[in-house]
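Q: Please design a sequence for this.
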């Protein structure tokens, strides 16, 4: 008699090849990227240092903020590897700097018109790492790398859980997680790392609840994620609209009426937390920001919108028309969004992403019209809120284009747009061979990305690194070798599992060996 053995909880915790590649890329990149070469990482690091000392916000001034930090922290933040020095970094300089003795006790004052005034939630992992590093007496340069490690360790499980839990567009979730720009955002000290992790998990859970039975629908698990998102960047809260189809579009009428008050209660609680957080943060946005001869003021911009209601719509459309090309190129613009990897690699990554939108797993359910409408509404509303926030806080009054919008802000929205816009008319079935080819291509992409990062940021001899053409040839050779190894090591009895599915006299097998329907 055939028996199917259900996998244990420990076996379900094993990571897939894509998840292992994602974790490996993050751990390698957080070490490869020189200190403070990510967008605004210096100021995010200062914010985490203040939080590690028990201070939530710096002291506001008329034209910015003012705070005091240890002198050696400032030496690290404005060192020869900082964003002002566009030249390559000597790796031995980092080692020698760490070996220098610390300046104990002395502090310096820093004043700046630019400072991240998000809530404390995105900086908690980095603050914990800095507090632990200070207690062990480590050098401030190591504070940064520990803060990167703790931040990535906090958000990586959310991304991995999103990839595992989603019931649709899993190859798209994997592709977005393996974008070079996504890896940089997740493993550096920035508020966007928590936003990407929480947004990905919210979208995956909403999709899973919509396609699963009523027994798996639990809105209370969404409350901590919603509060985390509200206290990171409130502009991404419209992604909670994806919960509406899961809560309301149910065949059982009694289940619908039970889910509706639960949904309203959870959304109301998240909205209350968001209002309290923004009321606290708004006091630090009262003063105008100076951009040379131009000034951005929230109050003046709001008064301008009351007189010209269509000004924002025109500026938003103008920004999309002018900046979309640059946003797509940011996928290989690492560091401070500078062209690190070749542009052709970016085109290849987008081609692989578009191919991933057509890949379907064998048991993937189709997206219902209600889910498509909710996904499109959530994505467009989130884009509008991102544009409105930057229009109010960073754009000079009466400017024809929104200042500060970057393509990295839209990374959490890519799976949402895919769910809303793709159809099954042009789809490719995801099998083991295709999964292996996609994985091998991502490994080749990250090999070329790592070579480009080392070549761009570090003062190493060209003889130590392959050229761009040699890197491509080495990646192709690696793909051929991996394909050959897999061909000769593949199991010879692939048809046995299919026979077991219909043969009641087959021996004991596992659920994954039996057939896909047994998973």
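A: Design:
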């Amino acid at each position: 008699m055939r028996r199917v053995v259900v996998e244990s909880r420990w076996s379900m915790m094993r990571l897939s090849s894509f998840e292992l590649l994602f974790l490996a890329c993050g751990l390698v990149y957080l070490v490869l990227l020189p200190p403070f070469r990510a967008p605004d990482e210096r100021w995010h690091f200062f914010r985490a240092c203040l939080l590690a000392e028990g201070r939530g916000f710096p002291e506001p001034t008329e034209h910015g903020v003012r705070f005091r930090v240890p002198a050696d922290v400032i030496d690290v933040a404005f060192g020869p590897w900082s964003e002002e020095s566009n030249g390559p970094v000597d790796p031995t300089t980092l080692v020698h700097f760490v070996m220098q003795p610390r300046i104990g006790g002395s502090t310096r004052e820093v004043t700046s018109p630019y400072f991240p005034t998000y809530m404390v939630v995105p900086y908690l992992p980095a603050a914990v790492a800095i507090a632990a590093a200070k207690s062990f007496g480590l050098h401030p340069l190591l504070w940064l790398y520990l803060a990167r490690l703790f931040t990535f360790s906090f958000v990586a499980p959310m991304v991995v859980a999103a990839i595992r839990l989603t019931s649709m567009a899993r190859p798209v979730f994997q592709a977005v997680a393996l974008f070079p720009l996504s890896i940089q955002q997740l493993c550096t000290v920035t508020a966007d790392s928590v936003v990407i992790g929480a947004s990905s998990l919210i979208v995956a859970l909403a999709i899973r609840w919509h396609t699963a039975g009523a027994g798996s629908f639990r809105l209370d698990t969404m409350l901590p994620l919603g509060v985390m998102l509200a206290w990171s960047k409130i502009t991404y809260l419209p992604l909670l609209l994806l919960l509406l189809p899961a809560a309301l579009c149910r065949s059982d009428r009694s289940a619908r009426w039970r889910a509706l008050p639960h949904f309203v209660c959870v959304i109301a609680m998240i909205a209350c937390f968001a209002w309290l957080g923004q009321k606290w943060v708004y006091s630090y946005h009262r003063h105008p920001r100076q951009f040379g001869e131009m000034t951005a003021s929230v109050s003046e911009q709001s008064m301008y919108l009351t007189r010209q209601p269509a000004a924002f719509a025109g500026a938003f459309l103008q920004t999309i028309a002018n900046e979309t090309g640059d946003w797509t190129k940011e996928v290989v613009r690492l560091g401070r969004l500078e062209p690190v990897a070749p542009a052709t690699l970016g085109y290849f990554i987008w081609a692989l992403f578009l191919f991933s939108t057509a890949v379907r797993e064998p048991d993937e359910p189709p997206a219902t019209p209600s889910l498509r409408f909710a996904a499109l509404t959530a994505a467009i509303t989130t884009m509008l809120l991102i544009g409105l926030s930057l229009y109010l806080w960073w754009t000079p009054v009466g400017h024809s284009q929104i200042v500060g919008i970057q393509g990295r802000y839209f990374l959490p929205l890519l799976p949402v747009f895919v769910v809303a816009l793709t159809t099954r008319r042009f789809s490719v079935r995801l099998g083991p061979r295709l999964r292996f080819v996609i994985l091998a291509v991502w490994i080749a992409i990250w090999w070329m990305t790592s070579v480009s990062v080392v070549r761009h940021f570090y003062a190493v001899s060209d003889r130590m690194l392959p050229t761009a053409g040699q890197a491509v040839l080495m990646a192709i050779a690696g793909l051929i070798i991996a394909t050959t190894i897999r061909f000769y090591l593949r199991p010879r009895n692939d048809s046995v599992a299919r026979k077991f599915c219909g043969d009641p006299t087959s021996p004991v097998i596992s659920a994954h060996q039996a057939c896909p329907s047994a998973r």
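Q: Thanks. Anything notable?
A: Residues 111 and 284 are 14 Å apart (CA to CA). The chain is about 60% helix and 5% strand.
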